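Model the whole thing, not chain by chain.
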Amino acid sequence: DAKTTQPPSMDCAEGRAANLPCNHSTISGNEYVYWYRQIHSQGPQYIIHGLKNNETNEMASLIITEDRKSSTLILPHATLRDTAVYYCIGGDTGTASKLTFGTGTRLQVTL
Amino acid sequence: KAGVTQTPRYLIKTRGQQVTLSCSPISGHRSVSWYQQTPGQGLQFLFEYFSETQRNKGNFPGRFSGRQFSNSRSEMNVSTLELGDSALYLCASSKGQRGFTDTQYFGPGTRLTVL
């Protein structure tokens, strides 16, 4: 699985866009980038995943650079309920069921 | 659709005892994975079961075991509990299809405290 690097913490004002970066310079061609988040003491929640193209769903957008060495998760209008630890994970379809979580980014959304 | 459920939610045991945790996956999901989360080691993969067979295994001692039933419900067992086994144990279910990205859906976890 690709090793990912994320900043340990970030702050964002409520209503503003939260842009969470992830470096995955060792990602291989068949490895996807997954994003999960974990709100305090709850189970992780799936957000989005992508391979090469940018992806968008009702929760977030995922922007993957052309060389696939990094990506950015965008929460377009952060709310207090988005305060959580966000995990960027690299993995292929064979490892989708055995995710390797790093330390993640603790996002604090403030008024 | 009901989510992943785990029972019990909280458990207190003493060293040397054994414990069994239960996980009911989302209806139609055939894969169940187990994870351990501790403040020191973070979230670590324990094992995955698919169609009653262990398909993947993490790097944990043999004291940690699991099984899956024909209805896809899964249990994990930890024998001879140690203080370091105190953790949040998370279960995740997915369809288990190979060749597709297979989103995992996590349950709320079982908080195990070993005294």
